[in-house]
Amino acid sequence: MTSNTFNQSKFIPTPPEKGSFPLDHESLCKKYYLLYMRCLRRSDDQSSECRKEAQDYLGCRMKNQLMEEVEWSKLGFEDTTKQKQNEPPGK
User: Fold this and answer.
1) 45-60, pLDDT tens digit by residue?
2) Given phi > 0 = left and psi -120 to 50 = alpha, else beta, which region is 67?
3) Would residue 34 count as lying in a domain?
4) Any residues with CB less than 8 A from the CB of 26 and at least 6 apart, and which?
């Protein structure tokens, strides 16, 4: 009723581009989340210094079906993908 007041248009929510991002109700990835948050605190919120922790957290979420499995390069981790390809076998 209040949305019709003063000729305001009705709010129509739009879904996120990459689908839903379910909450981790069972705390399956809480360890990785806390490691990432601790890294951010140590580095004065410089996320570039916590790339490894971010990748571990997203990897946990993908492994536990809390997000869609996506190529690392599409999540901004191109350099780690290239490093793995250039490593000699056996490492």
Assistant:
1) 999 999 999 999 999 9
2) beta
3) yes
4) none
Minimal CA–CA distance to 55: which of 80, 31, 30? 80
CB within 8 Å of 33: residues ≥ 6 apart = 24, 57
Decide if 51 is inside a domain: yes
Residue 15 lies in a domain: no
Burial category of 58 from C-beta neighbours within 10 Å (exposed 0-12, middle 13-18, buried 19 and up): buried
Residues 6+ apart with CB under 8 A from 35: 53, 56, 57
* Cβ neighbours for 60, distance < 8 A, ≥ 6 positions apart: 28, 29, 32, 66
Amino acid identity of residue 9, one-letter, is S
Domain with 64, as residue range(s), is: 29-75
- pTM, 2 dp: 0.66
